[in-house]
Design goal:
Chain C: It is a multi-pass membrane protein. Chain C: Keywords: Cell membrane, Membrane, Transmembrane, Transmembrane helix, Transport. The complex is a heterotrimer of chains A (379), B (306) and C (268). With 379 residues, chain A is α+β, with helices and mostly antiparallel strands. Chain A folds into 2 domains: 241 residues, P-loop containing nucleotide triphosphate hydrolases (Rossmann fold, 3-Layer(aba) Sandwich), CATH 3.40.50; 123 residues, Nucleic acid-binding proteins (OB fold (Dihydrolipoamide Acetyltransferase, E2P)), CATH 2.40.50. In chain A, 22% of the residues lie in helices and 33% in strands. Chain A is elongated, with a radius of gyration of 25 Å. Chain C has 268 residues and is mostly helical. Classes of the chains: A alpha+beta (379), B mainly alpha (306), C mainly alpha (268).
């Protein structure tokens, strides 16, 4: 057992290296609970210093994967490497990772300082060093005056900060965050998203975040892995995930997407061509992804990439559509329109600056699209 | 670095035996954790009960045990009038006590659960405390209350309700039933309270919304949904009371003797262990059958009120 | 009067009468124990503490009290240790057979004590074990563990399992986690379990009656004294002391249980 290599006291002594070196490697990881396959041959590589999110609906296996990285669960088969070392059989206390739990798990019988010093106590740093580190950690999360407050007398946001400080004070190579913001109300959550992102940039260690909130993942992450039923559907940067989802499921999970009926669809090299009834012939790029089965591929467009052509305006591609429903969202209006030849109703999101909120249901409007807005996805 | 370190799954698997691997699983950890109390209960409860069952099929000649199989003890236990009567009486007492206790306790449990508010815990504490204190003394106390010159008779005399002391208050089955019902009243509250607490209050609101008044709501929602608690309360009173020893001895008199007294005699003075064992096993089997019948009965009643 | 208000009052009155009847027999004997009469009957004749005073020089009673103390403390400590194991397994692990295992452990809760008593008696005598305080402890352990489990299960349920995971995550070992997180968090429940099981053991009669041999516990001693009508006032005094002790310990247990609840509670 190479216990000395990963003793927590050495967590601090990681020299910063090239940002592209893999910090965590997940190789063919399976997890089976009885007859249920929770994780199915997962492969992923998380880089050093990266803010990496595991995004998916509840029950998709994202938390199971995070817990395996932290050592709270063992894979049924496959391996997980952290910093190049196989973690098989290593309990959480011998891994260079620390976790912020969904419930925060703040020890209610200890005060804030004691909570933060909990792990340091085992490192036998000496009293002054320990106090110094606790003080720094408190300052880092802006809780300097709360040190003596007991663990069960904190608000949700404060507990979240203590949990963060308690993990970071251990100077882990990797910080694991299990839905850390889901218990907070909307305003605090948005504020904490910004703070977490800043903190990660400032410390420079790898963060792995589990979340079911697509906006949280999009706004905070360097890269996102989207998971469905135990499988990773796509790993990419936020912009790519949103603008060029690999599959129909990914597209759906990350906000509204119009799926279009195509009478003809062909993939040719890195290009695709399609004829969309009622809209016309279009072309597009595959971008970074592969379409393994063109027969089941599907064409889509995000609602905000469709625009209304107002009276007196002209555009290259004009499609006439009938408004069947209208939903008002304050600064925006979403129109559901029917286009002849298209099987599904199509959603158009328009700002209210020009009076989209006044368009009556039943009226016929003209819409247009950006040439590069069409996306091809695996069905 | 990542690819240059070859991993050897075979070697890794070999370093851990299947046994130690099992200990790492959820089931393994669970069994290891539960094993000290489990082994204790198996050795000192289940083992001895098996021995008692075995004993009931043996016979005893003065001090030596003959281990050849016989049903003589059961024949005696179930056909000899003295034992048969004791068995029936014990059963009658325990079933009566169970129903009386649960019927009297239900409104109290309902009150604590629905009207207890902030003081639910305090109410529950106040009600259950007598159960834990002075088992012998409580029974003795009933003897003092129900006796010929007891508190009840004296009070009734003083109030002029009766002209001379009633001798029918103590040393009969009724005295045993009253004493046992009092002993177990507090305990019966607990399962009833738990099942009432689990009852989703919005179900009652929904029933009210759909036109049911308080009585119908109680009969159609509360009662059926707390049936598990009622069953649990009946069992938790009925099964232990069937084997009560002290109450019949102190307040039951000659007419209130129960099966436990006969069992004790066989393990004490009479020293016929096999017969005592057969009496004990018969009691448990019969009380289990009655318990099963009650469960079925309540399930049937539940289907009736819809 | 509003419809329903009457039934509310009736119910409240019923509950009060119910509780009064529950306590009446428990509190009646202490009243007689201060009564200056050799038999417990109405009307009361005068206040005295002589029945209590005469207990002071009663060697046999002191022996029984000492025996009860030994049995009670041992049963409380051991059943709480076993209870911690069982409660932990029941709340922290999910495995096949758990329901069966826990029903075996909880069975003494519902079995008639006489069945437990004779089963143990037959086996112990069969193995040639001398009846002693040890055999009483063995029996009391059986009936105390289920109560201990009940108290501790709510203790375990009250605290988030990720507390223990957090401790492991912060570098602590399994044993260290037990010492620094699990036990401090469970402390009020553990104290509550100790007090409740001690009270049960102190009060228990049937198992002690069958298993105690020549060393009686207090209830067995009291049972022996009941044959002598003249000793009844002393028995009442002793019984009153026992009831008072039980009430005190149960109240303390309840206070600790509440403290446990408050400790787990998170202020919003």
């Amino acid at each position: 057992m190479t216990e000395t290599m990963t003793h927590p006291s050495l967590k601090a002594d990681i020299a910063p290296a090239a940002a592209t070196r893999p910090m965590i490697e997940i190789r063919n990881v399976d997890k089976v609970f009885g007859n249920f396959r929770a994780l199915d041959t997962l492969n992923a590589s998380i880089r050093e210093g990266e803010f990496f999110s595991l995004l998916g609906p509840s029950g998709c296996g994202k938390t199971t994967l995070l817990r395996m990285i932290g050592g709270f669960d063992e894979p049924t088969s496959g391996e997980i490497l952290i910093g190049g070392q196989d973690m098989a059989g290593k309990p959480p206390n011998l891994r260079p990772t620390n976790m912020v739990f969904q419930s925060y798990a703040i020890f209610p019988h200890l005060n804030v300082s004691e909570n933060i010093a909990y792990g340091l106590k085992r490192l036998k740093l000496g009293r002054s060093e320990e106090e110094k580190r606790v003080k720094e950690a408190l300052a880092q999360v802006e809780l300097s005056n709360l040190g003596p407050r007991m663990g069960n007398q904190l608000s949700g946001g404060q507990r979240q900060r203590v949990a963060l400080a308690r993990a970071l004070v251990m100077r882990p190579k990797v910080l694991l965050l299990d839905e850390p913001l889901s218990a907070l109300d909307k305003n605090l959550r948005e504020q904490m998203q910004v703070e977490l992102r800043h903190l990660q940039r400032q410390i420079g260690i790898t963060f792995v975040l589990v979340t079911h909130d697509q906006y949280e993942a999009l706004s905070m992450s360097d890269r996102i892995a989207v998971m469905f039923s135990g499988q990773i559907a796509q790993i990419a940067e936020p912009k790519e995930i949103y603008q060029n989802p690999a599959t129909r499921k990914v597209a759906d999970f990350l906000g509204g997407m119009n799926f279009l009926t195509a009478s003809e669809l062909a993939v040719d090299g890195r290009q695709f061509r399609a004829t969309l009834p009622g809209i016309g012939a279009i072309t597009g790029h595959l971008s970074g992804k592969e379409i393994t089965d063109p027969a089941s591929a599907i064409i889509g467009i995000r609602p905000e990439r469709l625009r209304i052509v107002w009276e007196g305006e002209t555009a290259d591609h004009i499609v006439t559509a009938r408004v069947v429903d209208r939903n008002y969202y304050g600064e925006m209006t979403s129109l559901m329109v029917a286009i002849d030849g298209q099987a599904e109703e199509i959603s158009v999101v328009e700002t209210n600056d020009f009076g989209a909120d006044d368009i009556p249901v039943g009226s016929v409007i003209r819409i247009t699209y950006d040439r590069d807005a069409f996306i091809i996805m695996q069905g | 670095m990542p690819t240059s370190a070859p991993t050897m799954p075979a070697a890794r698997a070999g370093s851990r035996t299947p046994g130690s691997r099992w200990l790492q699983t959820e089931a393994g950890k669970g069994w290891v954790t539960i094993s000290p109390p489990l082994i204790y209960a198996l050795l000192l409860l289940i083992g001895p009960i098996i021995v008692i069952v075995a004993n009931s099929f043996w016979s005893q000649d003065y001090l030596t045990i003959d281990r050849s199989f016989t049903l003589e003890n059961y024949k005696a236990a179930l056909t000899e009038p003295i034992y048969r009567d004791l068995l029936f009486r014990s059963l009658f007492v325990s079933v009566t006590v169970a129903f009386v206790t649960v019927i009297l306790a239900y409104p109290v449990a309902w009150f604590v659960s629905f009207r207890g508010g902030r003081y639910k815990g305090l109410w529950l504490f106040i009600i259950t405390v007598p159960f834990w204190s002075g088992y012998l003394l409580r029974i003795l106390s009933w003897k003092v209350i129900l006796g010929y010159k007891g508190v009840l008779n004296e009070t009734l005399l003083y109030l002029g309700v009766i002209a001379e002391p009633l001798s029918s208050l103590i040393y009969n089955v009724n005295a045993a039933i009253i004493t046992l019902a009092h002993s177990w009243a507090a305990f019966a509250i607990l399962p009833l309270f738990v099942s009432l607490e689990k009852l989703d209050r919005s179900l009652l609101e929904a029933a009210a919304d759909l036109g049911d008044g308080p009585v119908r709501r109680f009969l159609r929602i509360t009662l059926p949904l707390t049936a598990p608690g009622i069953i649990a309360a009946l069992m938790i009173v009925m099964i232990p009371t069937v084997g009560d020893y002290v109450t019949p001895k102190l307040v039951g008199g000659k007419d209130g003797v129960m099966i436990a007294n006969a069992i004790q005699v066989q393990f004490g003075k009479a020293s016929n262990w096999p017969l005592g064992a057969a009496l004990a096993v018969s009691t448990m089997v019969i009380v289990t059958m009655v318990a099963g019948a009650i469960v079925l009965l309540i399930a049937g009643l539940k289907r009736l009120v819809k | 009067m509003r419809p329903g208000a009457l039934s509310r009052r009736l119910l409240a009155a019923y509950v009060i009468v119910y509780v009064a009847i529950l306590y009446f027999p428990v509190l009646l004997l202490p009243v007689f124990s201060f009564n200056d009469s050799a038999t417990p009957k109405l009307p009361l004749v005068g206040f005295t503490t002589k029945w209590y005073a005469s207990l002071a020089g009663n060697e046999a009673m002191h022996g029984a009290a000492w025996n009860s103390l030994i049995v009670g403390v041992s049963a409380a400590l051991l059943s709480t240790v076993l209870g911690i194991c069982a409660a932990r397994a029941m709340t922290r692990h999910r495995f096949r057979g758990m329901a069966a295992a826990s029903s075996v452990i909880m069975a003494p809760l519902i079995l008639p004590e006489i069945i437990i008593a004779i089963s143990l008696l037959v086996v112990l005598l069969g193995l040639g074990v001398q009846l002693s305080l040890l055999t009483v402890i063995l029996g009391h352990l059986l009936i105390c563990v289920p109560y201990s489990v009940t108290v501790l299960v709510s203790g375990f349920e009250g605290f988030d399992p990720s507390m223990e995971e957090a401790s492991r995550d912060l570098g602590e070992t399994g044993f260290g986690t037990l010492r620094r997180v699990t036990l401090p968090m469970l402390a009020p429940s553990i104290v509550s379990s100790l007090l409740v099981t001690f009270t049960i053991s102190l009060d228990e009669f049937i198992l002690a009656f069958f298993l105690s041999g020549t060393e009686p516990t207090l209830p067995v001693y009291i049972w022996g004294q009941l044959r002598f009508a003249a000793k009844l006032p002393n028995v009442l005094a002793l019984g009153s002391i026992l009831i008072a002790a039980s009430l005190l310990m149960l109240t303390a247990a309840e206070l600790f249980r509440r403290r446990a609840e408050r400790k787990m509670e998170l202020r919003p």
